[in-house]
Amino acid sequence: MTRAVLSIGSNLGDRFAYLQSVVDGLRPFLVAVSPVYETAAWGVEDQPDFLNAVVVVAADDVDEWGWLRRGQALENAAGRVREKRWGPRTLDVDVVTVDGVTSEHPELLLPHPGAHERATVLIPWLDVEPDAVLPGHGPVAALKFSSEGVRRREDLVLSGGVNS
Ligand SMILES: Nc1ncnc2c1ncn2[C@@H]1O[C@H](COP(=O)(O)OP(=O)(O)OP(=O)(O)O)[C@@H](O)[C@H]1O
Ligand SMILES: Nc1nc2c(c(=O)[nH]1)N=C(CO)CN2
């Protein structure tokens, strides 16, 4: 059984529908789905706010590359156009961790190298896994990060999620 933590985000078009498309596309594998957050863009700040959430999935027969490919297929289905790094996108699916796996392959860095400092990943992850551990960084609850610009959207609940 491999278990993966995925960070999902959207800041173009029907943002919530794109996040829901990930939950729908991964339904057989769902372990947990976090609340949705409205988040100010980091990296390239001059772009629309994102919606972000975290999805935990598990399967017997999907390895880390399988999770990456499934995420990319969902990005493609959302009509994602690959433009500039950290730029606006209909859907982004990042593999944050896969249990027991580290990777230095540039197409699949694990754990994801930015995860430890991104409130947009860590806050929703803690919602669904308060005891989460990020390999190389320790317990997520002990990490120092700013939650400025990250606001829970109580009105948006992913179906299949923890609150539904
Ligand atoms: N853990 C990972 N999850 C998803 N993609 C990864 C991972 N590690 C490396 N990649 C590679 O990153 C590329 C996608 O980069 P993308 O344009 O989505 O980056 P970004 O989302 O703008 O920035 P960041 O990766 O810092 O969030 C893909 O080619 C993919 O193979
Ligand atoms: N708030 C927020 N900002 C971002 C995000 C994201 O998911 N949320 N993703 C990016 C590209 O990976 C760039 N900036």
UniProtKB/TrEMBL annotation:
Residue limits of the 7,8-dihydro-6-hydroxymethylpterin-pyrophosphokinase domain? 85-96
Q: Which CDD domains match?
A: HPPK
Lineage, top-rank taxon, reads Bacteria
Concerning InterPro entries, the annotation shows: Hppk (IPR000550), Hppk_sf (IPR035907)
SUPFAM superfamilies registered for this protein in UniProt:
6-hydroxymethyl-7,8-dihydropterin pyrophosphokinase, HPPK
> What EC number(s) would the UniProt record show?
2.7.6.3
Q: What is this protein called?
A: 2-amino-4-hydroxy-6-hydroxymethyldihydropteridine diphosphokinase
Species of the source: Lentzea fradiae
